[in-house]
Design brief:
binds S-adenosylmethionine; Rossmann fold; 4 helices; globular; alpha/beta; 7-stranded mixed beta sheet; 156 residues
Length: 156
């Protein structure tokens, strides 16, 4: 499945290359990206989620499943033509996500937000994504209903 923030905006994807799915869970987005021709690194701390993703992929090529604790940073170097981070929020990781983008690379990020929901330590403050990724060129951003999203591109 496409990342939620990319639905209706699939044309923004580069033609191909390398993709990183951060906190991939069961890998639905990673498998979708692989189906679009990307070589995907799918990273999660959960071996259960990774195993479910690999089983769903059923041996299809294109996804490397990587068990890794993101609180220690990203597992490897970019650059990536697409970086997806959907429903995993760690502001300390934001600079690494931006730095992992290749020139012209696309970031697609969705985090829990306190806009339209309660506050708390797990939710982004208003404007958090735009401030964190201000060096990128935004294509779409939204806050509301307890989520914040940003689709933005590194300058070529
Ligand atoms: C809400 S799920 C989102 C999964 C997927 N991105 C999606 O949109 O369906 C959050 C994911 O973050 C992963 N996660 C939580 N803490 C992590 C960490 N420190 N390092 C890597 N992954 C982590 C969980 O295992 C889980 O798969």
């Amino acid at each position: 499945m496409p990342p939620d923030a990319l639905r209706g905006r699939e044309h923004l994807l580069p033609a191909g290359g390398r993709a990183l799915d951060v906190a991939c869970g069961r890998g639905g987005v990673a498998v979708w990206l692989a189906g679009r021709g990307f070589a995907v690194d799918a990273v999660d701390v959960s071996p259960v989620g990774l195993a479910a993703g690999a089983a769903a992929a059923d041996g299809a090529a294109g996804v490397t499943w990587i068990a890794h604790d993101l609180t220690t940073g990203l597992p490897g170097a970019g650059p990536y033509d697409v970086v997806v981070c959907q429903r995993y929020r760690d502001p300390a990781l934001y600079p690494a996500l931006a730095a992992a983008l290749a020139p012209g690379g696309l970031l697609v990020i969705t985090v829990l937000s306190e806009v339209g929901d309660s506050g708390g330590p797990f939710r982004a403050r208003p404007g958090e994504l735009v401030a964190a990724f201000g060096d990128l060129v935004p294509h779409a951003m939204a806050e509301g209903g307890g989520e914040a999203t940003l689709v933005a591109r590194r300058r070529a």
